[in-house]
Amino acid sequence: MQIQLSAVVPVPLRERILQRQSDIWNRDVTFQPGQFIKIKAPSGTGKTTLVHYLYHIRYDYTGSISVDGKPWQDYNRDQLSAIRQRQVSVVFQDLRLFDQLSALENIELKRVMDPQPYYPQEKTLEFAERLGVTHVLKQSGATLSYGERQRIAIIRALMQPFEWLMMDEPFSHLDDANADKAARLIAEECHARKAGFILTDLDHDQRFDYTVSYLL
Ligand SMILES: Nc1ncnc2c1ncn2[C@@H]1O[C@H](COP(=O)(O)OP(=O)(O)OP(=O)(O)O)[C@@H](O)[C@H]1O
């Protein structure tokens, strides 16, 4: 799945963005299948905005974003839902866990609604063990620490099929050892599926072997 950005400029940020250099905003950029893409973005330059545009849950921009040659706007609701079920997985900066569900239920929610789940439930337990969150699986989302929430959201994203995995500052509340463990797992899963990976971060993340690095 190829993603093409053509002269994308967020409407609310137009003035600010056009005053500075960016490798992404107002440029023509193509993300090729399987690429590992680093997007370094100083605070407030629109990192989260970009991830929302790429997942097509926000559309207040000029220019266009095309997926396999077709603008996001031309996909209907069923097609978008199928893409989010099987082709694009995301970890938002605000993680979007349900407070009233347990950590395990949060991970399982999307998988159990999938008629052809990509992985069996045992995989959740294996990933939780690898990321050191087995002991919190029964805890409610509301009681998890932020670092635990990040690891649960990462596991949830890995449990579904994807051709692109997008993560918005996924390690911001993890210490180096835990971030390294999560990065190893993410890289393994992306490579096994020949999937592309897009990571946005404030700094120069060095945990992945990136194909290309952009400044937002
Ligand atoms: N709908 C909107 N209307 C006006 N301004 C907005 C809107 N959405 C976002 N902004 C502004 O756009 C800028 C970029 O927001 P965004 O959340 O994408 O930043 P970010 O780069 O992810 O920042 P951070 O690193 O702080 O998370 C911010 O200054 C924000 O206040």
TrEMBL record:
InterPro entries: AAA+_ATPase, ABC_transporter-like_ATP-bd, ABC_transporter-like_CS, P-loop_NTPase
GO MF term list: ATP binding; ATP hydrolysis activity
Family listed: Belongs to the ABC transporter superfamily.
Pfam families given in the database record: ABC_tran (PF00005)
Sequence ranges assigned to domain ABC transporter in this UniProt record: 3-215
Protein's recorded name: ATP-binding cassette domain-containing protein
Keywords tagged on the record: ATP-binding, Nucleotide-binding, Translocase
High-level lineage: Bacteria, Pseudomonadati, Bacteroidota, Chitinophagia, Chitinophagales
Gene3D superfamilies linked to this entry: P-loop containing nucleotide triphosphate hydrolases
Organism: Chitinophaga barathri
